[in-house]
Each structure stands twice: as C-alpha cells, then as structure tokens.
Write a structure and sequence with these properties.
By secondary structure, the chain is mainly alpha-helical. It is built from five helices and no strands. The chain has one domain: Helix Hairpins (Orthogonal Bundle), CATH 1.10.287. About 90% of the residues lie in helices and about 0% in strands.
Length: about 280
C-alpha cells in the first residue's frame, strides 16, 4: 500500500478517536461543572442549616437557664409556703370558735353603754348599783375577750390571705416553667430536624465528592489518551509524504482556529493546545 494512503488512513482513524474522546471529555467536563454547582448550592444550604441550628441551640440554652432559675425560685416559694401553712395551722389551733350565744361585740358594747348611762343618771340603791357595777365589769371582761378573739381571727384571715398570695405567685412560676418547657421541647424538635438535614447534606456532599473524584479520574485518563493521539497526529502530519498545501486543512486549520479562540479570550481545550504545538513542530 502506498505510504501516503496508509498515513491518511491512520490520520482518519485518529481523527475519529480524537473526536470521540473530545466529545467524551466535553460531556465529562459538563458533568463535573454540574456537580460543582450542585456542591456549591449544597454548601450554601449546609451553612444555613448550621447557622439556624446554632441559633436554636443558643435559644434553647437561654430558655433552659431560665427554667433552671425558675425551678430554684419555685423551690424557695414551696418551702416558704410549707412553713406558712404550718404556722397557719398553729394560729388556727389557738383560735377559739365564737360562741354566738354570747352575742356580738357591738351588742355587748350597747349593754355596757346602757348600764353606764343608768348608773350616771339614776339614783340607785347601794345593792342595785353594786349589782350593775358587777354586770358592767363582767360585760367589759367579756367584750375584751371578744376583741382579743376578733384580733386572733383577723390575724388568721390576714395570714391566710398572705398564704394565698404566695401560692398564686408559686402557681404563676409553675405556669411560666411549663410554658418555657413547651417552648424548649419545640426548639429541640426543630433542632433535631436541622441536625438530620445537616447529616443528610453532609452525606450527599460526600457522595458528590466521590462522584467528582471519579469524573476527574476519567477526565485525566481521557486527557492522557487524547494527548497521545494528538501527538501521533502531529507525528504523522510531520512526515514528508505530505505537501504543505495538503497539511493546511489537517493541521494549520486547527491551529488557526485555536489561535482565533485564544485572541477572543475563549477557553482552549487540550486539543486546541496540542494542535498549536503540532503546527509549531511542523514549522520547525
């Protein structure tokens, strides 16, 4: 077979191989770019998840601190209430139930005033005055006892009111603790959801990294093969079996196209660079 024909056949086969590899390289590069975009978006989501999770943890920590402080305050209130209820029972035990048959203090006071008026305005016999003085003394003693018992009842009522007031405060603290505990639980649920999203995002990112490593390996392998074929192309086109005019479509055209791409600040491919190198080799 004529050497020129054989070289042309080899070049044609190399051309097909180079084209197929170039197509594969372009597809892999697009896949790699797509994976990087997916990774960038995932990293942005992951940063947002982590930021939100930190805010939730800080908020939960703040609420849990409030709950702990309120529980301590409630414990002090409950201890105080227990002591107050004990004192209340002591006061109640010393209060004698009122004897309604003795009448009310106001009624006793009226009787005293009536007797005093009688003694002062009427001419009484010695015996009757003595009797009324005795009654007056007894009524005043009875009134004094009633006033003392009333004071005890008032003390009991006032103390009971204080106990109720303290209990209301303790109940308010308990309600606040329950409210904060519910809020803390809700935050914990949200934090758990964010933690799951973070774990899932990291897992997906790891898979993307594995995919990128695979794509880079494939691209590197194709680069090596493409460079080998292009070097073979350059070597064949450098053979003296071709005239300069015959080589223009095969080498110079590719080199000129690559140069135009470079001038227009386009991105050169491996094939473009090797074509330019092949043209330089031909000139030498």
């Amino acid at each position: 077979m004529d050497e020129k024909v054989e070289v042309k056949q080899q070049l044609e086969q190399l051309k097909k191989e180079i084209h197929l590899l170039s197509v594969s390289l372009k597809q892999l590069s697009e896949q790699k770019e797509s994976k990087y975009k997916e990774k960038d978006g995932l990293n942005q989501d992951l940063n947002n998840y982590i930021k939100t999770a930190k805010e939730l943890r800080d908020k939960k920590k703040e609420i849990d601190t409030k709950i702990r402080d309120l529980k301590g305050k409630r414990q002090v209130f409950n201890k105080g209430l227990s002591e107050m209820w004990g004192k209340f029972r002591e006061i109640k035990a010393n209060v004698v139930p009122k004897d309604k048959s003795k009448g009310s203090p106001s009624l006793i006071q009226k009787q005293i005033e009536k007797i005093e008026f009688t003694i002062q305005t009427e001419a009484l016999s010695f015996e009757r005055e003595k009797k009324m003085m005795r009654q007056l003394k007894e009524l005043k003693a009875q009134l004094g006892e009633m006033k003392l018992e009333d004071a005890k009842f008032k003390e009991l009522r006032d103390f009971k009111d204080d106990v109720k007031e303290k209990k209301v405060e303790a109940d308010d603290i308990h309600i606040e603790i329950q409210k904060l505990a519910t809020e803390s639980t809700d935050i914990f649920k949200k934090l758990t959801e964010k933690s799951e999203l973070i774990a899932k995002a990291k897992e997906t990112r790891e898979k993307i990294n594995v995919d990128l490593q695979g794509l880079k390996a494939q691209i590197s392998e194709i680069d090596v093969r493409l460079e080998k074929f292009l070097q073979q192309w350059g070597a064949l086109t450098s053979l003296p079996v071709f005239t300069e005019q015959e080589m223009i479509p095969a080498v110079q055209k590719k080199a000129e196209a690559a140069m135009e791409k470079l001038k227009s600040k386009g991105k050169l491919t491996k094939e473009d660079i090797l074509a330019m190198q092949g043209q330089n080799m031909k000139r030498r």
